[in-house]
Amino acid sequence: LVLLISFGFYYSHSLSRYTNGGETDPIQRTTIKYIEHIIEASRINGMNPALVAAIVAVESNFNPNALSYAGAKGLMQINGVTARYLKVKNLYDPESNIKAGVGYLNELSEMFGGNLRLILAAYNAGPGAVKKFGGVPPYKQTRKYVEKVLALFHIYKSAPELIALNSK
Asked: Which end of the chain is more exposed for a tag (fewer CB within 10 A), N or C?
């Protein structure tokens, strides 16, 4: 049974099976929306585009008009405080949103010494929470977020359009 996952992958297993430790079948076809913006922002900021694609998938399911209950907007779900800090005017513009979100990821990477789990936890719960707890905060939502992004990162690293770019 081949399922179309709305964030762009066709593959022969459900995401829940994958995230519960199931083995993945080979990806038959992949299309990552906004790939050109993801690649460019990743290149500029020294981030892995597969990681950025995974974050966008988890944050907004590649919906540039996504709005969270907490007011985070766009593809990378940037909140108002972070948008002002990053000087982003239009959070619903895919290019601006991705550029700002990846720039912020780069800052978090520097802040947490490149530790991927801490970077993701800080992106989700805020760098203050990660510092307060000295690691991934004990928030159920944040812990699930980190695992989801890491699972998708693993999948996206095999995306044909990203294979050559996944050296970081």
From this structure: N
